[in-house]
Design brief:
The structure is a single chain. The chain has helices at about 5-15, 60-65, 90-95, 110-120, 125-140, 155-165, 185-200, 210-215, 235-240, 255-270, 295-305, 320-330, 335-340, and strands spanning about 20-30, 35-45, 50, 75-80, 80-85, 95-100, 170-175, 205-210, 220-225, 230-235, 245-250, 275-280, 285-290, 310-315. It is α/β, with parallel strands linked by helices and about 350 residues long. It has 2 domains: about 20-240, Rossmann fold, CATH 3.40.50; about 245-320, Alpha-Beta Plaits (2-Layer Sandwich). It has a 6-stranded mixed β-sheet with strand order 6-7-8-3-9-10, with helices on both faces. Strand 1 and strand 2 form a beta hairpin. The structure holds adenosine-5'-diphosphate and magnesium ion. The site of adenosine-5'-diphosphate (ADP) has 12 residues, from helix 2. Magnesium ion binds near residues 59, 60, 176 and 177.
Length: about 350
C-alpha cells in the first residue's frame, strides 16, 4: 500500500527529475574545431539554467544539439527523457527555441506569423486563436498584432519570436543569446517576460555572454569557456568562491581631516577582527572586504559604535560573475568581448 507520505515523496522526486541530461557531449566541426569538448550537466524541471561564456565558448553549438538542429560527434543528450539523436521529432514536440536569428516573416503581421507557426506546429485549430491572444498579452504585443512585422522594433521582434516558440506549450524553452543587440530598456522588458514564462512552469535553458543577464535570470549557471564547463553553481555560490563580500561605509564628516580621522579610527577599531580581510579608502568613506558580510555586520557595527565614527550609510555587495569568470579562466568576459568583431547574425 502506498501511504500518503510515500506518494508525496514520489511526487517530490518526480518534480526534481532532470528535464535535460547531457553526458560527455563532444562536437568537432569539419576542419577540426572542437567547439564542445566533453560537456555534462543536468537541468531539473522548472529550473532557469544558463550557459555563461564569451564568444566562441561553444554555447550555440551546445544549444543547437539539444534542440535537435545539429548532431553531436559523441556523447548523449536527453530532453524530457527522450534521446535527441534517437527521437529528434519527439524532442521537438517538447521544446521551443528562440535562436540568435529571429525567425519571423517581416511581410506578415504579428498575428499572421503566430497563426502560420501555430498551424505548422499543429496546435489544434480550436485552441489556436485563444492561445495567440494569451501570448500576445504575455509578450505585450496585443496592440501591434495587426502591424506588419517589418515595422517592429528589435525588442518587439524578439518578443514575437518568443511567442512563436511558446505556441505549442513546450516543456523546455531554449534561448540562444535572447537579448543580444537590444537596447537596455528592451532587454529589461524581455527579462520580465522570460521570468513570467518560467513562473508558468516552463524549464528554461539560456545562453548569454552578459553576466548581468545570467545573474538576474538564472537560478543556476554553468560558466563555459573553450568548449568546457569551467564551474557550475548558483550565482551566489559562484560569487562566494571568489571570496570576500564588499561592505561600503559612507562616513559623515565635515572636513577632509575629519574624514581621515574617522578612517584611521575604523582601522584601529577593526584591528584583529577576523572577518575583515582588507580595508580600503573610498571617496566618501571606506570599503571593507569581508568574508561573510551578512554574519559579520552586527559585530562590525557594534565595534564601530563610539569614538566619533558617524556612519551615514552601510551597503554591501557581492563580487560579480565577471570576478568569478576571472578567477576560473584568468580572463574577463568583457576583455574577451572587446576582442571580438561584430560579424552580424549567424
Ligand atoms: N558551422 C561551423 N563550422 C566550423 N566551426 C564552427 C561552426 N560553428 C561554430 N564554429 C566554431 O566553434 C566554436 C564554438 O562556436 P559557438 O558554438 O558558436 O560558440 P558561442 O555560441 O559560445 O559563441 C567557435 O570556435 C566557432 O568558430
Ligand atoms: Mg553563440
Amino acid at each position: 500500500m502506498v501511504t500518503e507520505t510515500q506518494q508525496r515523496l514520489d511526487e517530490t522526486h518526480a518534480a526534481a527529475a532532470p528535464v535535460i541530461e547531457v553526458r560527455e557531449l563532444v562536437k568537432v566541426y569539419k576542419g577540426g574545431t572542437r567547439a564542445v569538448d566533453g560537456v555534462s550537466f543536468t537541468v531539473a524541471e522548472g529550473e532557469f539554467f544558463g550557459f555563461l561564456g564569451p564568444n566562441g565558448a561553444g554555447k550555440t553549438t551546445t544549444i543547437r544539439i539539444l534542440a535537435t538542429l545539429l548532431r553531436p560527434t559523441s556523447g548523449s543528450a536527453k530532453v524530457s527523457g527522450i534521446d535527441v539523436l534517437a527521437h529528434p521529432g519527439e524532442v521537438r514536440r517538447e521544446v521551443g527555441f528562440a535562436m540568435q536569428t529571429v525567425a519571423v516573416d517581416p511581410l506578415a503581421t504579428g498575428r499572421e506569423n503566430l497563426e502560420l507557426i501555430g498551424r505548422l506546429r499543429r496546435v489544434p485549430a480550436s485552441e489556436l486563436q485563444g492561445r495567440i491572444d494569451e501570448l500576445l498579452v504575455l509578450m505585450k504585443l496585443t496592440e501591434s498584432q495587426k502591424k506588419v512585422v517589418g515595422t517592429y522594433s528589435g525588442g518587439m521582434k524578439r518578443r514575437l519570436d518568443l511567442a512563436t516558440a511558446l505556441l505549442h506549450r513546450p516543456k523546455v524553452l531554449f534561448l540562444d543569446e535572447p537579448t543580444e543587440g537590444l537596447d537596455p530598456q528592451s532587454r529589461n522588458a524581455l527579462w520580465e517576460e522570460l521570468e513570467s514564462v518560467n513562473r508558468s512552469g516552463t524549464t528554461m535553458f539560456l545562453t548569454t555572454h552578459y553576466m548581468e543577464e545570467a545573474d538576474r535570470l538564472c537560478k543556476r549557471i554553468a560558466i563555459v569557456d573553450e568548449g568546457k564547463i569551467v564551474v557550475e553553481g548558483t550565482p551566489a555560490e559562484l560569487k562566494r568562491t571568489v571570496g570576500n563580500d564588499v561592505v561600503e561605509l559612507q562616513l559623515e564628516a565635515d572636513s577632509p581631516n575629519e574624514l581621515e580621522r574617522q578612517r584611521s579610527g575604523i582601522g584601529r577599531m577593526l584591528e584583529g577582527f577576523e572577518p575583515v580581510a582588507e580595508i580600503k579608502s573610498s571617496p566618501a568613506g571606506v570599503q571593507l572586504y569581508v568574508s561573510d558580510a551578512a554574519a559579520a555586520i552586527p559585530e562590525l557595527v557594534r565595534r564601530l559604535d563610539g569614538d566619533g565614527i558617524r556612519i551615514g550609510a552601510l551597503t554591501m555587495h557581492q563580487p560579480s560573475l565577471d570576478d568569478v569568470f576571472m578567477r576560473y579562466t584568468g580572463k574577463t568576459i568583457r576583455e574577451e568581448q572587446a576582442n571580438v568583431h561584430f560579424t552580424g547574425w549567424y
